[in-house]
Amino acid sequence: MDYDYEDLADEYDVEDYGIEPSKSEYIHEGYSENISLRPPLYELFYHCLTPTVGEAAAHLGKVLFYCVVFRLVCDYGPKRLKNLTSIGCGIMVTYHFFGPLTWYLAANATISYLVLQVSTVVLNRGRGVLTAVTSVVFLFLCELFIVASQDWHTIRGAQMLISMKVISIGFDIDSNHLLSVPMPMDFFGYIFCVGTIIFGPWTRFSDYAMIGHNKLGIIHNILVTSWKSAVALFFLSISTCWSFWIAPNGSYKWSVAYRDALSFRSSHYFVSKMAEASSLTCNILQSKVKGAKKDDKKYENDSVSAEPIVITRPWSIELPRSLVEVVVHWNIPMHHWLRTYVFKNTRSLGTLPAILSTYAASAMLHGLNFQLAAVLFSLGIYTYTEHIFRTKLAFMINGCVGPRKCSDCTHALKESHFVVMIINFCFSLIVMFHLAYLGFTFNSAGSMEEEGYSMYHTLEKWRWLNFSSHWVVLFTFILASVM
Fold this sequence. Notes:
Elements lengths: L24 H4 L12 H36 L4 H18 L3 H21 L4 H20 L2 H26 L9 H8 L13 H5 L8 H29 L6 H29 L3 E5 L14 E5 L5 H5 L4 H8 L1 H15 L4 H16 L3 H28 L20 H22 L7 H5 L3 H10 L3 H15 L1
Antiparallel strand pairs: 1-2
Helix pairs in contact: 2-3, 2-9, 2-10, 3-7, 4-5, 4-6, 5-6, 9-10, 10-16, 13-14, 15-19
């Protein structure tokens, strides 16, 4: 089995859009590393759950209101108002969350559009690469010299989404999936679409263009959106309240590590489910090739169906089969973007350069962050080692214990065999151990959480856990090498 980027990590990111409520004061007040404090449930309800969920619901309600306005215009209004409404609603929402920082989003989109036009007129090729370079340079300049650290951390997620959209347009034109650079109103309507500009996800330009054509039943939309919103708030309550109630400071250090990692993952699920709700409200559906296999990413405008966007699958992460499954299901649109526009475009250089290019692209889009780069690099080593070890083990015992379930299993020991179930269960526990170790670095109170995590913070967190996860992976790699 050839090792492909699909079996490698795509991202492990804290998606901060400046809207997640801070943890309630009682969570931190009186805490120390040596004191265990678990407040009564009524205090948890009144001082954490109620204000946190209430504040988040108000933010989500405002986004969904503008999504409904946009949806009504697209479904029942003049078609010429679609882009104008998208831009207007998108800017209203971004200004609600980011205030004057919205101008930096507009600057990124405008400069990128000019580069698209100039590269088309002057070169008529290389649009994808030029827009990618322009976006990365713009992000670096803003982060290093123009925008304050705390402000940049607030808008970083939205800036990344804009860059991903622009870069995808450039590569789609180069590969003839788009015939030309979109008109200005189409372009900015796509960039500032209210259903994706705040929480995501990344979608193709063609998916935006199909809004108003592909329709789901209004009752279906209301029910699914309500469910996704409720699930989002549930995960937010875990991230900010329940996790710290279940494992307060002073608990066993691995309990604290798992708690902080769970809090981080739950905040990601919160943002992802809000994104699914907002995109569905706008009737943004993802294209899927008819009759294609599940992992077939081929894009054909004239043979696609449309379905609601799925961003993350929490149960595949919390109860994982392998790290490979975790990184695929962590952020499905981001995984697809990296695989389509980075890995496939660099694979001619060789598998290793393509993998390194993919990680470099992911890291650069997320900014200059040692913590994220360290986790990404670690995940690359982890998943590569896991892939080699479990593939060899599956061959040795002729059992279905590989990093992914067999689509057409030919092993003597099937998935339901007792020995296979025990082995896969042990691997799942190891993955949960690695996730606790890696995710532990993403939680800290105070200004560090608002401005980004330093190298010292990351290494100190891992040192506290004795770098145990890295030692386990090193041992696994050595064992895989001699098998």
